[in-house]
Amino acid sequence: MRVYLIRHAECEDNLIEADPTRRMTRAEFNKFVLSSPDSPLTYAGIEQAQRLVQHFTTRPISRLYSSPLPRALATAAALAEAYHLVPQVIADLRELLPPPFNEHGASFTASVRWLFLQGYLRMVFSSDSEDRLSIARHRARAVWEQMTREPAEAIAAVSHGWFIMLLLTILSGDPSWQVVKRDLNNAGVSLVVSR
Predict the structure, then answer these.
(1) At residue 23, what are phi and psi to the nearest 5 degrees?
(2) Residue 47 and residue 59: Cα distance in Å, rounded?
(3) Closest CA relative to residue 29, chosen from 94, 121, 111, 131
(4) Which burial class, exposed, middle or buried, applies to 25 when counting CB atoms under 10 A from its CB (0-12, 13-18, 19+)?
(5) What is the Cβ-side half-sphere exposure of residue 114, based on CA atoms within 13 angstroms?
(6) Which of 11, 171, 178, 179 is the most exposed place for a label (fewest CB within 10 A)?
(7) What is the tens place of the pLDDT at every residue in 12-41?
(8) Longest dimension (CA), the chain
(9) What CATH number has the domain spanning 2-194?
(10) Is the pLDDT confidence value at 147 over 60?
(11) Is the whole model's pTM more than 0.85, yes or no?
């Protein structure tokens, strides 16, 4: 079995995250993260999704899965149309978001990258976050088992950068699977094959 893990195409929030000069307070960052699930594709992202279809023109896909978030669904829609498939939405393919900062120090200002890094590090050590790393790992493993339960030559899943990175990390230690390619760029395709 071949499993293509596809990061959604560029969305508006990606432009903010990629800007090294962009700074926010912790309170602004909390609002940014809360609104993140609704971030639509940019015009460049729409073009990336269309180019993604060209990547797959000679590759068969039996099933297509997608995160429920609009940017992933829009990316999956391009493949779905080309393959005449209906994306199967799996809620747990959603983004892995850091927990909000508490009100203490809410006016502290830092780069968006630094705030994301701090947020994800807090997930590693948190005991109360809904998306703490141990729960996220369990969620990723359950999604993988759900997608690969039925035999197929090849399947594809559209998800999000941090979630795909976590999934690839888990699978790199699994003797049943081999991570052949990692590409966590927008509209990037990572490939995992069964051994």
Answers:
(1) -125, 150
(2) 20
(3) 111
(4) middle
(5) 11
(6) 178
(7) 999 888 888 899 999 899 999 888 888 999
(8) 54
(9) 3.40.50.1240
(10) yes
(11) yes
